[in-house]
Amino acid sequence: MHIHSTNDEHDDAFRQALARSGALDPRKPTTDLVAGALRRLPHTSPRVAARHAALRQALGRAATVAVVALLVIPAAVGAFNLMRGAETPIGAFASTAGQSQMRAAILAAIGQRLDMSLVRALVGALMWLVQVMAVVLTLGFWPRRSAAAGMTLLAMPFRAFGTGLLAIGLLIAGVAALLTLLTATLAGLPIAAIVVILAHLPVALGIAAGARALGFRLAHHSHPPYDLDRHQIIAAALLALPAAIVTFISIPAALAALYILAVPGIGALIHSQGGLQPVSAT
Amino acid sequence: MEQSDEYALIKRSIDGDHEAFAQLMERYAGSVFNLAYRMLGNVQEAEDASQEIFLRAYTNLARFDQERRFSTWLLSIGSNYCIDRLRRRRFAWLTLDDVVLSVPTSAKGPERSAIEREERDAVQRALLSLPPTYREIAVLRYWNDLSYEEIIQVTGLPESTIKTRLHRARRMLAEALRAEGVVHEEIPS
Asked: Which of A9-18, B15-24, B96-105 has the lowest mean pLDDT?
């Protein structure tokens, strides 16, 4: 076969060469294509469907703009406040209460409460329960993607740990910078709280991926099923133990334990593109 | 199907007649699916994309200019959608859907065999090595068999751009096909 590819005169020759090689043979559409599209058609006329689609698009854009504005405006105002040395809401509160006195009072109150072994035990148990629930829910909602991330973690544990460590470092630095700006304005305080919650989503996902990997090991699966079986639940319960136990010593240390546990899973999620493209050991 | 029959079906579809639109879909399922398959590279994604293209066509049907050919209008929706989808691929991991694109397995089930068949499709591999904008023009020209005039209508690009892209696409595709072993002789430059 000879293919000319230099100019338009050889267009036909190129087409014929492709045809001779069988490259132009049409691919038969899948049997369910038209029936599937028919099922997905809106139950209204195209005009009404177009109006609905335009409205959905406008609402989507408005929501995106609102979310970005909610984040950017308080952060920008916070940055401006910090640059001109204005008093931040937290600073104002602290100076009103007497910063050192307030800190001492808070620490004393927390210390007094947490010294009580019963309270510590309750906090530890609660932490364990919340972790298990969060992980089981994540595994239930994303059985395939969490399985893919778990599979990737088993295939490349050290690389996943390294990547995860870097990612969580960047996440902490980024969130800390954002929180500094957001907490410099009064309006930014509730948004800062939401940011803190959202920033913990990758941690939950990372622990879930770790639980998947541990569950596969417990079940001795080389190519695991997606189902949420007892091995996954046992793995979730086991992985929740370290942070819960550390709570007896120190709550900040428990948080650190959570982040460390999430590191390999976060790395596996990154390597598997959020569980879309798993990496296999075989 | 006569042109007048086609317009009658379009008119009925605009009035909300799903059966008429189903007939239009049956007629163009092949060309839309092949465009999506050659642009996106796998059957599963091509099926989903084809359905999405028909949905978009239905939603925009009231705006269809009857001076134009329905096939080129439909392919312009398809072509734009595929390019958009290829761009969005890099953000696919952000989706909340519980999908896995490829599961590595040593099992030799029918699904795996189908994947391997696709992997063996050297032509498809060669085509996927082209940048999407070049691939688009090559697919429309050779696989959908459109004229330059029709490609202008589908893409909205000037003829000179189309000719340049087609020339480059042809050269790259010929080289890729030779590298894949589909073509064995030297390609003239």
From this structure: B96-105
B21 and A41: CB-CB below 8 Å? yes
Q: Spell out the residues 6+ positions from residue B182 whose beta carbon is closer than 8 angstroms to its own.
A: A1, A21, A23, B122, B123, B126
Q: Is A4 a member of any domain?
A: no
Is there a domain that residue A124 lies in?
yes
Q: Burial of A60 by CB count in 10 Å (0-12 exposed, 13-18 middle, 19+ buried)?
A: exposed
Is A199 inside any structural domain?
A: yes
Top-level class of domain B3-92+110-180: mainly alpha
pLDDT, average across residues A128-135: 91
The whole-angstrom separation of Cα B168 and Cα B166 is: 5
pLDDT for the residue B89? 80
Please give the tally of structural domains in chain A: 1
Q: Report in angstroms the alpha-carbon separations of B128 from A276, B39, B53, B57, B85.
A: 20, 7, 20, 26, 14
The span from the CA of A210 to the CA of A198, in Å, is 19
For the ranges A105-119, A244-258, B112-126, B136-150, the maximum mean pLDDT occurs at: B136-150
Residues of A in contact with B163 (CB under 8 A): 8
Shortest distance between the Cα of A79 and any Cα of chain B, in A, equals: 29
